[in-house]
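Researcher: Next entry in the queue.
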Amino acid sequence: MIRGEADRQADVVRLLEASREVYARRAELAPDIVASSGLSPQGVLLGFESLERAASAADLRALVAAAGDAPCVHVILSANVFVAPLRALAVARAAASNVTVRPSRRDPWLARALVAAAADPALVLAERADVSAIARGEIHVYGRRETIAAVRSMARPGVRVRGHGPGIGIAVVTRAGNLASCAAELARDVAVFDQRGCLSPRAVAVEGGIDRARALAEALHAAFEALQALVPLGEVAPAERAQAASWRDAMAFAGGVWSSEHHAVGLAARGGLWAIPPPGRNVSVIPLDSLSGLRAELGPFASEVTAIGSDAPAQVGPFAPSHVRLSTLGEMQRPPLDGPVDRRKNE
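Model: Structure for this entry, 347 residues:
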């Protein structure tokens, strides 16, 4: 049977109804997610605010158009962002009349809850997935580049693999932006999922020179201090702590560092030094002479950027890579449900 756009949208709406049911149970689900994700209890509740629970008619049309068409889709999920299964399932269900999903082994809770709440016979959990046994349709795989490459190497000829790999977010504060409010909103965007998603900002370019960049770094340091009391940082792996220490040392040499046990803000005294820090509430601040220089400043990192948040996204848009998601600061982790989060080519 050929599925029309209305049928595809209805299948996505059913998932959104399930999402609202799961969101209502967030306090019940939170302890397992805390244990598996390493987020603090407050961090998990903050993360739940990014769970998509509604979509406009225009968003649903865009999602269906972006999803494409397949006889069946097999979804392989990762663990970095615990609310990510909803969008992954919505894209898959819009594309196909039969969907199987393998949850993350480390963090399976939300995927399991969504599938159970949806009660959709066309959406089935598969705790294990033998990629080489999949004979048709598509495989949507989320995670590290190595994982995507391994799935591609095992997939049969004729099975399309759509990989959704790692990426980073950045922020841009324009010359007119209020530094205190921009810092507060940026701190919130960073704190969601402790900076481990492809929408999470890891650096901020500040238009207006080094003095303005330094003032933003100081304001961001203060914003992180205030946020720690409300949403404590979760667990940070030893390897990430070691990487953060090396990054702080480099930034201290390059311009300056404001840090505590729970975060660090590093300033590059000159533009062009995109020292991207590891996750865990670490942010590089880079001075930017003008918005027109943004693409050149990004250099080789442009292909890694999936999202840009700004006090004036419409002004930044003409100078940003064409594939990025643009949003207002404070809303980077809540994009509309209009397709995959990552708009880079995923073949």
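Model: The first helix runs from residue 5 to 24.
Researcher: Noted, moving on.
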